[in-house]
Amino acid sequence: MAVWLVRIVTVAWAGFWLWFGVAWAIHERLPWQGVALNALRPGFLFVAIALIALFWPRPGGVLLILTGFVLAAWYGIYFGHMPTSTKLFALSAIALPPLVCGLILLWPRASRAGSVP
Known about the structure:
The chain is mostly helical. It is built from 6 helices and no strands.
């Protein structure tokens, strides 16, 4: 059960950031090459990590944890001037989902129950 919840949250997290990149590029009235490039940056990378986590839980869990730590470090460095409440909200949306999902996927009991059908 937990593995399926992790899969749903991981796909939702990756899909949201893919959508966010495309929506931002369209809002900025970028040409289609700019839209593709903005969606490619974080969105397609997150979708690839989510797909790895779907089909191979153990390496996907490691990738999700590394992604969460990298995103938390990047956000802390790049947006260090923001107020604490803004940083906490953004970190909970950017870095917390992959960290938690990766930890659950690597939990010994969850990894036994979560092979892909």
